[in-house]
Structures are given as structure tokens and as C-alpha cells.
Design goal:
The chain is α/β, with parallel strands linked by helices. Helices cover 34% and strands 18% of the residues. It has 20 helices and 21 strands. It has a seven-stranded mixed β-sheet, with helices on both faces. The chain has a six-stranded parallel β-sheet with strand order 3-2-4-5-7-6. Helix 2 links the parallel strand 2 (22-25) and strand 3. Helix 3 (52-66) runs parallel beside helix 4, helix 8 (195-211) packs across helix 12 and helix 10 runs parallel beside helix 12.
Length: 551
């Protein structure tokens, strides 16, 4: 680091230290000086996005793989468009940094004192900060070079410690002002546990494990967020206990592991996973978040399940606060609990389906067909739609090979998130996205960014002409009768595959398995641009594991 710095350079240096290699940005006159003078010459590549919500989703996808993501927008007119993306990252604990280019201090004072407004102002200097303070772990306003290093360090430390979004308001007249250079490196704050609560929790779980005849481990999303994959797998193998995941944590550990049984998400689960959960006499839920997605038509048995998440352990009526998940796993590993002896476990097996090439594609048939293309090099994104159900039962053998936003569930997330996934993934991985048509209509401009930067995700748009999952949630009986869909669930039909011509990428429209096979082959061969495959299915076709809901 140099002996002197500026506010603009300080922020770039700190982001670079934390591992940021790409910044998703929308041009704006309040942020453009920082972008031009400090980000452009740095090691951070600017990815020019087409709108703020797509930039937010791209930063979110990037951060899920890299541990940090960032977007830069302009005041109010831009920043407020990113609220939904930031809210989703907050709900799902994804560490992204929102840098908001803001009018100068002089323009702010003139507006507040005389009413003479600069463009994008709404009601004063607090508007954007107040909008984001409830959906970020820290909100800071950089309006003095002396305090800038302290505020930037505070916000970024909160970001990587809480693994949640932070908001940095960067005034346009601050970026060139001198400040102290960065000192040392920023690190996540140390996690803390109450010694008494931790010891009691370890002892209680140890006793339950030793007495259980059929224990089960339920691996949740916090294992991924806190980077505990290796420790959790070591514990599973030391105990020799089978494990399941939830949709939000699907493939956090390899689904090729001999002790993996399936994804446990209510009645959408595989038969093997549901049977094991029902027959188990003790379930250790590590980092599981309970949502209405993993309680679909089913409720966990709280009397036999110990939940270790959100820095607490809950087991029946017993509650122990301030117990860090990492410390709990360490304690259970150190306890050397004797391993269990298991009979042969029942697992779901896959065989390539026999499908007529001229046959009409169904929702379930699509997923049966696609399994053969999923391997260790596949990184899957599934959007909030009936694709949750279909993708839930796919076997994903690559650890970390599945990304979903199933807690917040904002439809339209996955296709633009694929921009970030493509930039953050391993070189040997290929991104595949399964999106509903309704969700894709919301964020279809992601194809522009992906084409511009030569990214090659394969985006499948399942075209049934309706907001299927919204209809299913409101009244699923429509899918099993001649009753019409709700009018509010009907979509204006798009010729999705022709969008490829608009944006300069490649597209296919398929309605038979033969057509799908040719399209996938073409998409796999196309590594220079995104590939869009419009998969036409009957409007009342849904995945098999969604059929349980009659209304």
C-alpha cells in the first residue's frame, strides 16, 4: 500500500483485499468519477449491467461463490431499484456491498436549506440510507475524508462477519480527497459462544446421539454460509450417520456421498428421505433454516429434532443461546462419539429414461431427461417456480453445484444471478439455469450483459404460459381439473427463443425430446455466448413431487 491514499482508492483497495474481482455497475453521474478514476485502473473489472435489480442479483450470485460481491449505482433513482435484490441477499445471508454514488455535500446543503433540488433528490440526505438500514448489516455515509477509512472498514467488516449486505453512500466530491491508506487486512469478527451453553449443548446432543438407534443429520444452509462443509462432512463420517439436506442447502455436500439420502422438503422430498426422517429417533439439524419451502405439507418433529442455527440450539422445550455452529461441530468432533452401524441404506437410483424423440415434453419428463447432463462440472441455478420441485430431486454430484434463493424466493432471480455465477465459478464448470417463463420475463435483459461479456450460461425457460407456482400456491386443484387458471396468473406469450436474435446470443424452441436433445447439444457446444432454450410444456403439466397438493 502507498503512504497516501484517497477515499476512492481506499475503497477499491479494501474491496480488492477481500477478494472482489468484478463490480456490477450502472452508469450514473454521481458515481462515474469513482468508477473512471479508481475502479477502472484497478484489478477489479467493471461489468456494465442493464438495470439495478439485475446488477444486484448478479452480485448476489457472485458472492455466493466468492464470499463477497458488489454493485455500484447512483442515488435514489438507481439505488431504490436495487432494494429487492439487496433484501433477498439480507434474508439469505449473502455478503454484498452496495456503493451508492451520491450528490456532493454542497448540493445536499443547498437542497436542504433552499429547496433547490439536484436530480434524484427526494427528501434530503437520509432518504436512501433509511431505505436500506433495515435490509443491510451496516449503512454508512462517506462525507468526510478523515472518518472515511473508519466507516469503510466498519461496513466491510460487518459484511464479511455477518455475511449480509452493507450500504456505503459515497459522495461524489469525496472520492479525490486524501485520507489515510489502509492499515492491515480486514478479517471477519471472531465468533463467540457462551462456554456454559456450548458445553450443555454438546453434552445433550452427545447423549441423544449415543442413545439413538436411527439418528439422522439434516444439513442446512448455514453450513455453506459459514464455510463448515469439511468439518460437517468429517462429523458425518466420524458418526457414520446418513444425512439429508434442504432445498436451500442442496448439494452443499456432494450428493454422491455414500451417506447422502436426499433433500428433505416436506412432501416434495424423495420417498427415501421422507421415510428416513419419519423413522429416525433423533435428528441433528445443523444450520437448518425452517421455511415454508421445507415444511411443504409436513411439519418437523420438534421433540426429536435438535436445531443448531442462528447461534442457538433448540431441542424440544430446551433453548441454549449463544452457541456458534462452528464451535458446536468442533465440540462434537472432539467428543469422539462411537460411530453407528448401518444396514444398507435405501437410496434413489437414476436410469436414463426411455423417451420417444417425437414425444411431447412434460415438466417431469424434462427433469428425467436432464439428469444425464448433470455432472461434477455442472453449476445449477433453479428459479422460484415449479422448477423448485423438479430440480430438488436432481442428483448433483459436485459439492456446491447448486444455487437457489428459496427462502426469499423472488421470481426472476436465477437468470441474472447466472451472470455473477459465470464470473465466479471454477473454469471447468458450466452454468445451467432452470427458470419459469414468468420469472424470466422480469429479468430477461440479463442476456444482454451475458452476451456483451462472452459468458455462456445455458438458460432453460420452461414455457407453460402461466405463473405456475403462484397458481399452485393459491389453488393447486386447477392442475388436476378442467378449471381455468386465475386470470392474474396468465402470461402474455413471448417467443423467448427469438430473444437470442435481439441480444446476439443463441436460442432454440423445443417441444419434443428429440428437439431438446439437439438443443442441449448445440448449447453445450456454444461457449461464446449464453444459450436460451425455450422448453414448451403443457400448461397443466407439473413435476410429480408437486402433485400431492390438491388445493
Amino acid at each position: 500500500m502507498s503512504e497516501t491514499s484517497t477515499v476512492g482508492k481506499y475503497l477499491v483497495d479494501r474491496l480488492s483485499q477481500l477478494g472482489l474481482g468484478h463490480l456490477f455497475s450502472i452508469a450514473g453521474d454521481y458515481s462515474i468519477d469513482w468508477l473512471n478514476r479508481y475502479v477502472t485502473p484497478s484489478s477489479i473489472e467493471i461489468i456494465e449491467e442493464v438495470n439495478e435489480v439485475n446488477a444486484g442479483y448478479a452480485a448476489d450470485g457472485y458472492a455466493r461463490l466468492r464470499g463477497i460481491g458488489a454493485l455500484c449505482v447512483t442515488y435514489s433513482a438507481g439505488a431504490l431499484c436495487a432494494v429487492n435484490a439487496v433484501a433477498g441477499a439480507y434474508a439469505e445471508k449473502v455478503p454484498i456491498v452496495l456503493i451508492n454514488g451520491t450528490p456532493s455535500i454542497q448540493k445536499t446543503i443547498v437542497f436542504e436549506q433552499t429547496g433547490f433540488s439536484a436530480h434524484h433528490f427526494i427528501s434530503g440526505r437520509e432518504t436512501d440510507m433509511q431505505s436500506f438500514e433495515h435490509i443491510t448489516a451496516a449503512t454508512v455515509r462517506i462525507e468526510n475524508p478523515v472518518t472515511a477509512p473508519m466507516l469503510i472498514d466498519y461496513a466491510l467488516t460487518q459484511c464479511v462477519s455477518q455475511r449480509r449486505p452493507v450500504y456505503i453512500e459515497l459522495l461524489q466530491d469525496m472520492v479525490d480527497l486524501e485520507c489515510e491508506p489502509p492499515k492491515g487486512r480486514l478479517r471477519p469478527a471472531e465468533v463467540l459462544s457462551d462456554p456454559g451453553s456450548l458445553e450443555e449443548s454438546i453434552a445433550e446432543i452427545r447423549t441423544a446421539l449415543e442413545h439413538a438407534e436411527n439418528p439422522l443429520i439434516w444439513v442446512g444452509v448455514e453450513v455453506d454460509r459459514l464455510g463448515l462443509q469439511e468439518k460437517t462432512l468429517s462429523l458425518i463420517r466420524q458418526l457414520n450417520i446418513p444425512f439429508v439436506t434442504e432445498l436451500l442447502s442442496k448439494a452443499v455436500l456432494s450428493e454422491d456421498d455414500e451417506l447422502f439420502i436426499g433433500v428433505l422438503d416436506g412432501q416434495a422430498s424423495s420417498e427415501a428421505a421422507a421415510d428416513l426422517a419419519r423413522d429416525s429417533d433423533f435428528i441433528l439439524a445443523l444450520g437448518v433454516w425452517l421455511t415454508d419451502i421445507n415444511s411443504l405439507g409436513w411439519s418437523p418433529d420438534y421433540d426429536k429434532t435438535a436445531f443448531a442455527s442462528f447461534d442457538a440450539v433448540k431441542f424440544g422445550t430446551r433453548f441454549s443461546g449463544q452457541v456458534a455452529l462452528e464451535h458446536l461441530v468442533d465440540g462434537l468432533l472432539a467428543a469422539k462419539i462411537p460411530p453407528k452401524a448401518w444396514k444398507t441404506l435405501t437410496k434413489t437410483t437414476y436410469t436414463v429414461p426411455s423417451l420417444r424423440t417425437s414425444g411431447e415434453i412434460t415438466y417431469q419428463g424434462f427433469y428425467d431427461f436432464m439428469q444425464q447432463y448433470i455432472n461434477r462440472h455442472t453449476l445449477i441455478g433453479a428459479d422460484a417456480s415449479m422448477n423448485y420441485f423438479g430440480s430438488l430431486l436432481l442428483k448433483v454430484v459436485g459439492a456446491g453445484g447448486f444455487v437457489v434463493q428459496s427462502s426469499y424466493s423472488s421470481i426472476g432471480y436465477s437468470a441474472p444471478a447466472a451472470t455473477g455465477l459465470c464470473l465466479a465459478k471454477r473454469p471447468d464448470q458450466r452454468v445451467m439455469v432452470f427458470s419459469g417463463d414468468g420469472g424470466f420475463q422480469m429479468t430477461a435483459q440479463c442476456l444482454s450483459t451475458q452476451t456483451r461479456f462472452g459468458l455462456d450460461p445455458i438458460i432453460f425457460v420452461i414455457d407453460n404460459g402461466v405463473y405456475g407456482v403462484e397458481q399452485w400456491l393459491a389453488d393447486a386443484s386447477v392442475f388436476h381439473s378442467d378449471e381455468p387458471f386465475y386470470r392474474s396468473c396468465l402470461l402474455h406469450p413471448w417467443n423467448y427463443s427469438r430473444l437470442a436474435e435481439v441480444f446476439g446470443c443463441q436460442g432454440w424452441r423445443v417441444d419434443t425430446y428429440g428437439g431438446l436433445m439437439d438443443a442441449v447439444a448445440g448449447a453445450m457446444a456454444n461457449t461464446r455466448s449464453p444459450s436460451l432454450i425455450q422448453v414448451v410444456v403443457p400448461d397443466k403439466s407439473i413435476p410429480d413431487n408437486a402433485n400431492w397438493k390438491a388445493r
